[in-house]
Amino acid sequence: MRILFFGGHKLGGITLKYLINQNKEIIAAVMSDTNKKWYQGLEKVADEYNIDLFKVENINSDEFVSKVRNDLKPDLIISVNFDQIFKKKMLNIPDKGCINIHASLLPKYRGRAPLNWAIIKGEEKTGVTVHFINEGIDTGEIILQEEIEITKDDYISDVLEMVKEKYPLMINKAINLIEKGNYETVKQNKEEGSYYGKRNPEDGLINWENSAEKIFNLIRAVSHPYPGAFTYLDESKILIWKAQVIKAENKSHKTGKVIEFRDNSFLVQCGSNQLLITDFKSETKLKTGDIFNGK
Q: In this protein, which residues make up the domain named Formyl transferase C-terminal (predicted)?
């Protein structure tokens, strides 16, 4: 079965390499022609295994659609962390269809940054879904779905590692099912779902009026390898990578106030409860009594 692989990021590269080593017939790989490092990751694998790699600004252009239809002639198209939307004229080319893998339990958390959003919202589980691509955003019929537990101590890097293990295995399993014609799909119920948009670095600004639990979820969601949660002391930016929620009924402190230092950590008053900041980066020396001027 002739497979055309569209992808980006490390997850795209890892999945492509796994499929090649599983002797899948990858006829070529496609990535966006972009300077954004987040969507790069296929070059090294394509070079190592001598796979033709196309860098394309618009996959739905008449020129590229014609090349796929007349020259590449795929039976199946796979999308892994690809950042462009497939239009109808591309979707209609492969006889076996087009499939995508998405890091959520669809129909929940359709759209961008699903893992970050799930942690921000305090979810206790997420998952990975392989689905057929239609003209909507992550709305196609589901082929496979597996859950991933999110513990209260998990940061985004921990969840990404769990997802990284599932991506190649689930895509490979979906290919085998499609090739044999041995699968049943589940139609998504949009009324049970949700959609979230992309996140930007500035979205990591902390609002100290929020509860310690809500701020903690934000910190976990945008910590490494993302830009990080942050606040300001006057004009100085402080990046916050890790923290712990401290239950405290004392509301006499102003929100955003540094209450005390504990070794290399410091305690901050939130709208309710407090946060012990255990990993941070600051270009200015912090002291007890400082008040952060976040939102």
A: 200-288
**Tell me: the pLDDT tens digits for 32-46?**
998 777 667 899 999
Task: Look at the block and give the residue holding tokens 């106030």.
Answer: 257
Give the CB-side neighbour count of residue 124, counting CA atoms within 13 A.
0
Please answer whether residues 292 and 230 qualify as being in contact, where contact means their C-beta atoms are separated by less than 8 angstroms.
Answer: no
Distance separating alpha carbons of residues 240 and 218, to the nearest angstrom: 10
Strands (E), 65-205: 76-80, 98-102, 110-111, 125-132, 142-149, 195-196
Region of residue 52 (left: phi > 0; alpha: psi -120 to 50; beta: else): beta
Mean pLDDT confidence for 168-191: 96
pLDDT at 22: 98
Cα–Cα distance between 286 and 284 in angstroms, integer? 6
Could you tell me if residue 67 is left (phi over 0), alpha (psi between -120 and 50 degrees) or otherwise beta?
A: alpha
Amino acid, single-letter form, for residue 199: R
Separation CA 116–CA 109 (nearest Å) = 10
* Residue 137 to residue 271: CA distance in whole angstroms: 36
Pairing of strands 53-56, 25-32: parallel
The radius of gyration of the chain's CA atoms, rounded to the nearest angstrom, is 22
> What pLDDT, on a 0 to 100 scale, did the predictor assign at position 173?
98
How crowded is residue 160: how many other Cβ atoms within 10 Å of its Cβ? 18
Domains and CATH numbers, the chain: 2-196 (3.40.50.170), 201-282 (3.10.25.10)
How far is the C-alpha of 287 from the C-alpha of 234, rounded, in Å?
13
Mean pLDDT in residue range 113-123: 98
**Residue pointed to by tokens 């041995």:** 182
CA neighbours closer than 13 Å in the CB half-sphere of residue 294: 26
Distance CA 257, CA 293 (A): 9
